[in-house]
Specification:
heterodimer; A: alpha/beta; eight-stranded mixed beta sheet; 11 helices; 13% strand; elongated; B: 279 residues; binds guanosine-5'-triphosphate; binds magnesium ion
Chain lengths: 292, 279
């Protein structure tokens, strides 16, 4: 793993006597490769390594007795700092219900995560309402309804012949009249380059004024993660990220890319297919995972 | 833009960066850059534009190393296509597209809803079956997927079906019990349809990064794969990770998904794919 590689590099370098800045640069190339192999975005990795170099030189790693260890420590600290604090808190609206809009690419885990988050809220004594606003994917509404039944959470649906904007508006009215304190709206997966569908999301946003817009991101995304996150954020002003399928063996560098490019906190992680497979985000665990 | 101008050190660095940004991965990118560097030296190539052709040829060669990329449907026998892959890759939708494709070719098609786990999985596949005008073998949620496959094989043989399309549940490759379940499905097919032509296809989302390599490796250990299907190439992701996979496993990419509609399925064209990496 990276720690071992850095120890080896510095051990070899130390053999030559005093370390130079060029030696540190060579070692940092290993950090960059480790990040790229972990699917961290190319530009994020570049900026990150530049930052590590600043600190390494500034903290006189060259004079250290254990430069390899020191660089690993700096990398770890910077990764944790970049990924932000542990955050399982959803914002609450001053005027209930708090509306949470779930958005993201096709197959990222929105429908499953909507139900997981609803179940998590129910466990906290809240009264969430789920809204089925994906009218395109075959049996998408049915999928949310089945998950609603499994968790004893009501699902608002108007079928697939009514626009998602209208469904969202009426779901909000339903939540208000039934005293639900949270409304979680599941939307269809879409490409960030599909103008019409991205406009649909801005229309939903304008109609129901969500307190949280959660971008659901598959943890195994590669270099494209930055393009996707940047576009969704620019269009909607995302307020949080849900990183799914972290129970896989992906290194998960997309987490770093998405966080770096949007500045949004990672609020939840999906760690399994079952509805209890939801955890808060632990930046230190993510840091060690990315570094392998 | 990478391929215009003179061949210099900057070029090889820019090329490496472009390949990495296309998810080709560090090792495969360095490999490709090295090939180009050697060719440029050997043939005294001064213009980047000349190396563009070499790059496409080299990537195409890497992608076709495992043989030509066609899903083979043999006449006068049962053909079984099993689609497997991680959660959300596009298996069910791709089966819907294949059902329409083969029905349109006058073939008799049957679907098997062997995802008995996920909410509304069978309903989703049933909708695609309806669209193609074909039948779908399904059991209740929680049934043994291998039992569904067994039933589907019996039905396919009895009804003289040309193509049986088997949908499986999404599964992450590090889940040993789910990989074992997949192996069992493979054995049910081998033991009960030995005379059939079988294709076991791994469905990969073009947006996935280097984890695709691990997927191909571990799914390949669970069942003997015959090819890959790369989905969601209509997005901004380039799917470059397949280069490393094909290089390592020799598995050809057989089809690509370019959208969510029935007609959004095309045969894989390595040269087009290679060119698109640099768009
Ligand atoms: N292992 C695992 N699987 C997950 C997780 N989250 C979602 N899934 C699975 O991923 C697949 C896709 O999940 P969906 O909830 O249907 O994804 P979606 O974003 O709603 O998909 P579209 O509506 O088609 O865009 C399903 O098989 C889920 O069971 C997770 O954290 N871990
Ligand atoms: N843009 C685009 N979307 C696709 C493509 N193929 C599938 N999808 C979408 O991806 C999402 C997931 O597709 P599914 O067919 O449910 O994927 P799956 O692999 O069967 O998912 P699980 O069974 O939950 O593991 C759906 O929203 C599909 O419409 C494609 O080629 N392009
Ligand atoms: Mg969904
Ligand atoms: Mg499916």
């Amino acid at each position: 793993n990276l720690a071992d590689k850095l120890q080896n590099i510095f051990a070899k370098l130390k053999g030559k006597g005093r370390l130079s800045e060029a030696d540190v640069t060579a070692a940092l190339r290993e950090v960059r490769v480790a990040l790229l192999e972990a699917d961290v975005s190319y530009k994020v990795a570049k900026d990150f390594v530049a930052r590590i170099k600043e600190r390494a030189v500034g903290e006189d790693v060259m004079k250290s007795l254990t430069p390899g260890q020191q660089v690993v420590k700096i990398v770890n600290e910077e990764l944790i700092a970049l990924m932000g604090p542990e955050q399982a808190k959803l914002k609450v609206s001053s005027k209930p219900p708090t509306v949470v809009l779930m958005v993201g690419l096709q197959g990222s885990g929105k429908t499953t995560s909507s139900a997981k988050i609803a179940l998590y809220l129910k466990g906290q004594g809240k009264r969430p309402l789920l809204a089925a606003a994906d009218i395109y994917r075959p049996a998408a509404i049915k999928q949310l309804q089945v998950l609603g039944e499994k968790t004893g959470i009501p699902v608002f649906s108007l079928g697939d012949q009514v626009s998602p904007v209208e469904i969202s508006k009426q779901a909000l009215a339903e939540a208000q009249s039934h005293g639900n304190d949270y409304l979680i709206i599941d939307t269809a997966g879409r490409l960030q380059i599909n103008e019409e569908l991205m406009n649909e999301l801005s229309d939903i946003r304008a109609a129901v004024n969500p307190t949280e817009i959660l971008l659901v991101v598959d943890a195994m995304l590669g270099q494209d993660a930055v393009n996707v996150a940047a576009a969704f954020h620019e269009k909607l002003t995302v307020s949080g990220i849900v990183l799914t399928k972290l129970d896989g063996d992906t290194r998960g560098g997309a987490a770093l890319s998405v966080k770096a490019v949007t500045g949004c906190p990672i609020k939840f992680t999906g760690i399994g297919e079952k509805l209890d497979g939801l955890e808060p985000f632990y930046p230190d665990r993510m840091a060690s995972r990315i570094l392998g | 833009a990478v391929f215009s101008g003179a061949v210099d050190d900057d070029f090889f660095e820019e090329l490496e960066d472009a390949l990495i940004c296309a998810d080709v991965g560090v090792n495969s990118s360095l490999q490709l850059v090295d090939v180009l560097r050697k060719r440029a030296k050997k043939d005294h190539i001064k213009e980047r534009q000349e190396l563009w052709q070499v790059m496409q040829e080299e990537i195409t060669a890497m992608l076709t190393a495992g043989g030509d990329g066609e899903i083979v449907i043999e006449p006068d026998k049962l053909n079984i296509l099993v689609l497997t892959g991680v959660n959300g890759a596009g298996k069910t939708t791709t089966i819907g597209k294949l059902a329409a494709l083969y029905t349109g070719q006058g073939k008799k098609v049957l679907l098997a809803a062997a995802d008995t786990f996920r909410a509304a999985a069978a309903e989703q596949l049933a909708t695609w079956a309806e669209r193609a005008g074909v039948s779908c073998i399904r059991q209740e949620e929680g049934a043994d997927p291998a039992a569904v496959v067994y039933d589907a094989i019996q039905a396919a043989q009895a009804r003289h079906v040309d193509v049986l399309l088997v949908d499986t549940a999404g599964r992450l490759q590090n889940k040993t019990n789910l990989m074992n379940e997949l192996s069992k499905i493979g054995r049910v097919i081998d033991n009960n349809a030995a005379e059939a032509h079988t294709e076991k296809l791994l469905v990969l989302d073009a947006g996935i990064g280097q984890n695709a390599i691990s997927q191909a490796r571990l799914f390949g250990e669970a069942v003997e794969l015959t090819g890959l299907i790369l989905t969601k190439l209509d997005g901004t992701a380039k799917g470059g990770a397949v280069i490393g996979i094909v290089n390592e496993s020799g598995l050809p990419v057989k089809m690509i998904g370019v959208g969510e509609k029935t007609e959004d399925l095309r045969p894989f064209q390595p040269a087009d794919f290679a060119a698109a990496l640099f768009n």
